[in-house]
Amino acid sequence: MEPAWVEDQLSGKRRMQFDLRGLTAFQQAVLRKTLEIPRGQVRPYGWIAREIGHPAAVRAVGSALANNPIPYFIPCHRVIRTDGLIGNYGGGGPEAKKSILTMEGVELKRLQQMAKSGLRYEGVRSTRVFCFPTCYHGRSAKAENVVLFHDESEAYAAGYRPCKHCRPAAVA
DNA sequence: GCGGCGGCGCTTG
DNA sequence: CCAAGCGCCGCCG
Fold first, then answer.
1. Is the CB of A55 under 7 A from strand B?
2. Which of A2, A74, A1 is nearest to A34 (CA)?
3. Predicted confidence (pLDDT) per residue in A110-128, tens digit
4. What pTM was estimated for this model as a whole?
5. Which runs of E-coded beta strand occur in A57-99?
6. A113: Cβ under 7 Å from strand B?
7. Domain containing A146 — which CATH number?
8. What CATH number does residue A55 fall under?
9. What is the per-residue pLDDT across A51-95, written as a single tens digit (0 to 9) for each?
């Protein structure tokens, strides 16, 4: 396994190299996938699990992130629970996680509101595409064109397909 | 409808 | 083999 190239998400310019070779293949897969989450966005633990081909290993993903050798640079703070709640965080607890996400531009208020209502996805009527709430796709849409869904089956039933960028569901 | 909790699940030390 | 760990679903009150 070669070392991973890590972009410093703060500047978006500095490039740093870290050696992930002491870690298992599973741990490396989790960390590399986490690096794909853009600044200002979040993804669920279950998303990581599915994307790396271990859809049932959700809790193991949490364990792997808990052992993140370089927190912040590998942005494990951008991984939250499937139900929209913030989830746990080793480096300072959930409060620290919230403040980092806020600084990165995540609309936590809206996220928590949706979580409380059990709403996990948002779709755009004009495109019939549904996304995770923080995906940039929804931001350019007019407010009246945004639809919220509780789960993916609800989105499919309404004739929507998963976004190709944030991939809220496996492509059928 | 909704918060809470048990049990399940997977990987690792 | 066993228990722990940044989770998740379903069932129950």
1. no
2. A74
3. 999 999 999 999 999 999 9
4. 0.90
5. 79-80
6. no
7. 3.40.10.10
8. 1.10.10.10
9. 999 999 999 999 999 999 999 999 999 999 999 999 999 878 899
